[in-house]
Fold this protein.
Amino acid sequence: MKKAVVLCSGGVDSVTLAWKVAAAGALDRLVSFDYGQRHSKEIERAALVAERLGARHDVVNIRELARFLTSSALIAGGDTAVPDGHYAQDNMKATVVPNRNAIMLSIAFGIAAGAKADAVGIAVHAGDHFIYPDCRPAFVEAFRAMQDCALEDMWEVELYAPFTGTDKAGIVREGTSLGVPYEITWSCYKGGERHCGRCGTCVERREAFHLANVPDPTDYEDPDYWIEAIARMKAGKPA
């Protein structure tokens, strides 16, 4: 990998990947997507990350897709509220955006081919497998095979997904060793002035720093809810 395009949402995972690729001297640019999500904080944070890394940041506008994806709690104007609780609970399936990674990766591979980059990086990880089918190893391998066919005899682009066997705590540990400034990242689905501390990504984020034994620099509205959410999940109770 000499020149990589990295998908960046501005969250813990993708920012860690951006730092990892930059540390290897291979970061060409960060690519973020405006797909009609509830808020723009994640894109703003991705822009800040790009500035810190001295990298190009491209934002691809695919907001028109939001008209067809209103079943997801992450889409602005939809009928589904962002659920509270732990990621491992079934109610988090409301946050699935159908085919999101496949759509974004297809575009990113086109960008990479145009930029003569040899890799596209995505930060899917083991903690996402329960809820999101397009974060699982089978999807990653299938997408690699599809892109090999799509760009055959034109340009060779690798799908770089180094965290598929790593949980979020492991990502935090690696990112801490790389010096990732997690205080500038954004995870909360609700998009308020502060991280809510209650939605699936806030609970997962808080738990990851705890398990990694790394101080969490995040300002949460409800900093202790994650303990209750984990207890309810382990007891098989709804959020």
The chain has a mean pLDDT of 89. Helices lie at 12-23, 41-53, 100-114, 137-150, 168-178, 200-212, 225-234. The two ends are 42 Å apart (CA to CA). The first strand starts at residue 4 and ends at 7.
